[in-house]
Amino acid sequence: MERTLSIIKPDAVERNFVGQIISRFEAQGLRPVAMRMMHLSQKEAEGFYAVHSERPFFKDLVSFMTRSPVVVMVLEGEGAVARNREIMGATNPENAAEGTIRKDFAKNIEENSVHGSDSPENAAIEIAYFFRSTEIC
Ligand code: IDP
To answer: Known EC number(s) (predicted)?
Structure first.
C-alpha cells in the first residue's frame, strides 16, 4: 500500500466536478484516507509549488490556485503515486489519454483540474504539507 497527495484544483471545484473526480479515484482502486476543502493562501500556494518558483508560469499558477477553494486529499492504494498519475492524465489536457480526468475535465495546461504527487518521496513531503499524521484515517 502506498499513499499520494491529490488536490482537486479551483477550476474543477468551481464547475462542481468534485464528486465525479473522487468517484474516478474510488472506481480505479484509490481510497481517500484524508480530505479537506480549503482556500489556499498565497503563502501556502507559493510554498507548495516552491519547486516551480523560477518558472515563467509561477505567478499565474499561484494566482489560479488561490482564487477559490480546493479539495486536498490523501489517496491510498497499491502503487498509489503512479496509479493516480495514470488516472489524472498528462499535464496538458491536449496530450492526455482518453478517459483520464484531465482529458475530460481540464480547461488548459494551467487549469488542469487535479494535482498528484510525482514520486513517493514527494508524496511524503506533500502529504505532510497539508495533513498531520493524526488526520489520516
Ligand atoms: P503536473 O501537475 O502534471 O505534475 P508540473 O510540471 O509539475 O505538472 O506543473 C505543475 C502545475 O503547473 C501544472 O499542473 C499546471 O497547473 C501548471 N503548469 C505546468 N506547466 C505549465 C505551463 O506551461 N503553463 C502554465 N501552467 C503550467
So the answer is: 2.7.4.6
What integer pLDDT is reported at residue 95 of this predicted model? 98
104 within ligand 1 shell (Cβ under 6 A)? no
Atom of ligand 1 nearest to the CA of 115: 2
Residue 114 is part of a domain; what is its CATH number?
3.30.70.141
Ligand 1 and 2: CB distance under 6 A: no
Round to whole Å and give the CA distance between 6 and 116.
5
**What is the percent of the chain where pLDDT is above 90?**
100
Question: Domain of 116?
Answer: 2-135
What's the gap in Å between 134 CA and the centre of ligand 1?
Answer: 30
Are the C-beta atoms of 9 and 112 separated by less than 8 Å?
A: yes
102 is in an annotated binding site: yes
Number of domains in the chain: 1
Answer whether 0.95 is exceeded by the pTM.
Answer: yes
The mean pLDDT of 91-106, rounded to a whole number, is 98
State how far the Cα of 43 lies from the Cα of 76, in Å rounded to an integer: 27
